[in-house]
Amino acid sequence: MNLDLTQEQTMLRDTAREFATREVAPRAKHFDASGEWPADLVKRLGDLGLMGVAIPAEYGGSGFDHISYALAMEEISAACASLGVIMSVNNSLASDPIWKHGSDMQKREFLTPMASGKILGCFGLTEPMSGSDAGTMATFAEKDGDNYVINGSKNFITNGPFADLIVVFVMTKKNIGHKGVTAFIVPTKTPGFSASKPDEKLGIHAAQSCSVFFENCRIPESYRLGGEGEGFKVAMGTLDGGRIGIASQALGIARAAFEKAVAYSKERKAFGVPLADKQAIQFMLADMATEIDAARLLIHRAAFLKDKKVRHSRESASAKLFASEMATRVTHKALQIHGGLGYTRECDAERHYRDARITEIYEGTSEIMRIVIAASVLKD
Ligand code: CAA
Hints:
- By secondary structure, this protein is of the alpha+beta class.
- It has three domains: 7-120, Orthogonal Bundle (Butyryl-Coa Dehydrogenase, subunit A, domain 1); 122-229, Butyryl-CoA Dehydrogenase, subunit A, domain 2 (Beta Barrel); 232-379, Butyryl-CoA Dehydrogenase, subunit A, domain 3, CATH 1.20.140.10.
- It is built from ten helices and ten strands.
- A four-stranded mixed sheet has the order 1-4-5-8. A four-stranded antiparallel sheet has the order 2-3-7-6, covered by helices on one side. Strands 9-10 form a two-stranded antiparallel ribbon.
- Helix 4 runs antiparallel to helix 6 (231-267).
- The mean pLDDT is 98.
């Protein structure tokens, strides 16, 4: 793996950085305080080619590699973690499985508008009684001629209130565990589909999530994504990519908190000298910088393997595990460096601290990441 960025990777990173700095960062506090959906910024992500970064141009994407995707995710998330996950869900969780497993018709009808940002996607795996143990879902699709009729519900669906389609995982056969899971693409305007009011969360307020319901929701067989019984593997493979996105989100949050802590430590004086002159602060900054670098290297390794089309479940899990726990540690220290000010809404440190926390939970908790890594370690 080459550590130098290519010209293309640098170009995409710089495009994302400029957009993030000029248009996103100045409004992040507002979106956090109001929980307002950042509609115009979501549209701008599409205009800039950031809603389908690694999807080929013939299907509406930008045709970059996954290192570019990770770099762009880091930049957007450093400015606004909510916008970061909105982007990640559309890229990794909704577009990528259709690119990998979709029919030509599905790629034309769904992927092309989604990867170009004209429509928005979401991903439905979790249910009230089936979170980490994803193979135990209850939502069921019954075959009826050339259609399937879906009944059940999914929760914590990021982008759910605004999505035009959901890539959803349901049982098509009972009592055979994960082998009974099948994936479908369901346009959200389909009769029988509905969404709840948005969830109230600790952080990432503008990345609205909700529960979604399927009541005799009838879709044609042509909307099935992959074969019957293949859905669990579609979901797991998709999450291998999604975890690169969330690890990059965590990295972006940590980097933003770190940069602000460095600036504050140079400017704020205590005991007659800037905080940065104190070794206690220097040691914190040194640990933060080292952990941020380590996370980025793990993320780029996982992205590199994804581009090589090599199975990267373990590397993605390591990247997400380390980056998300690192983001919690780094944002904790950044808030501490800001002292009392850091605990107030005036300061971005408390937003970063709250936003970081979810990265240890969604797209697989840290405990699930350890299970995935340990399974690979013990198999070797
Ligand atoms: N790629 C391809 N196949 C895979 C795979 C992968 N990454 N992981 C597992 N499989 C296959 C296995 O090889 C196995 O195949 P066979 O039956 O042919 O042997 C099959 O899938 C079942 O595997 P396991 O026995 O390992 O399955 P398990 O039931 O023990 O579950 C798990 C494994 C890792 C715990 C899994 O359930 C998991 O990842 N859980 C976490 C779920 C999760 O991440 N949810 C996040 C929701 S999405 C979200 O959060 C979105 C958002 O808001 C932003």
